[in-house]
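Q: Here's a chain of 481 amino acids. Please give me its 3D structure as tokens.
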Amino acid sequence: MSERLVVIGNGMAGARLVEEILDRAGGERFAITVIGAEPHGNYNRILLPKVLAGTQSAREIVLNPRDWYERNGVTLITGAPVVRIDRKARSVTTADGAELPYDKLIVATGSRAAMPAVNGIHDRYEALKPGIFGFRTLGDCEGMVAWARHARRVAVVGGGLLGLEAGRALLERGLEVDVVQRGGRLMNLQLDGNAADILRHKAEAMGMGVHVDARVEGVVGKDRPEALALADGRLLACDMVVFATGIAPNVELAVDAGLPVARGIAVDDGMGVLGCEDVYSVGECAEHRGTMYGLVAPLWEQVAVLADRLTAADPAARYRGSRNATKLKVSGVELATMGVVEPDGAHDEVVRFSEPTRGIYKAAIVRDGRLVGAILLGDIRRAPHLTQALDQGTVLPEDRAALLFDLASGVPAPTVDDLPEQALVCNCNGVSKADISACVAAGERTLAAVAAQTRATTGCGGCKADVVDVMAWAARTAEAA
């Protein structure tokens, strides 16, 4: 008989794990049940800002509709989340009372929007008041779109990537937008002070009000928002509030079941929960060697390792942690960051170029002759080459400015043609130049076909132009052969 594999969580990590298991013929080994808290199939959470802006529909961001589960022999339960894990009985219980036995259990409960402890955001039932939103799920997004139809001014609390995306999207909906950041600069985890200043000017040029070093004390308004109260005494008028203040892992179920939890569920290099036989965890709720990850690329690396181990495709597969490198796009603002943001002492070299009037900023941090971090804002053409240098630990040229520019007179700027085969083109899904080239060599000539085969462009979509360039290069190479 098939082993009973139960996956708690139908988010991007849980659903991707099921895909990876099926790709390794795991459907022959396991009877798979997926239990999701949301009433949908799996969707691309990265694209929620585009749904909020109205440039994509909810249907367009669906990754696995309900019939996908049926076609692949996977049982999908939605709207009845798991409320109890009984490790002794090896079963889980859902909110409607159903008890499901398991042989192997995956906890992929993900995370939720972290709501700060400020006054006036909850009603007497501890639910968010009307007009106050987190920004984490499709339901959040749909609620904001409905409320925005009758709103005039929104305060977005949180000046990270998600807050800026929400602010830009609601500008597109015709609202006046104020972004409120507790720290001294926007996107403080990804940018240094110089880059953050340029980004702030770009945000203000779009029409956003930007308030840094601004601590929120509460939301004014009995039944709906009327203003945001700041610690310095200011009141920002608003009739809608969006909190984009980070995420909190959903670990309460794991705690109640006695799983080891620090910030997240503690896992080993095989993604097994420490000390818990046949229980595993992946995604934003998992903590590996003291680190938790909120970007999709590390999650894909985790689920690939776990799928290898569960299906015996590679029983010795190990997850060793992920690098911090990503290409981001804030509705027209191109940004790539990787590695460390600030130098660590005088021994680190910093190569920096700033052209604020054009909104361009570039910085690279070099340690012991190797790249350890970089920021590219407004011009990210060098991003693939810097990512490769960071990944491979390449010894860098003596002329450090060549990291950011092509200095040789009359020599064309490098393109994706110059990238080595192993270079990643789609960081979200770990798709290399070689993967795309092989797909084209096999006869695929459209972006849709390459995306279906490799998953390139199906994350944030920021790599689309590079993927098209690699496809063109691969087609020329095939014709010349």
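Q: Can you summarize the key feature?
A: The radius of gyration is 23 Å.
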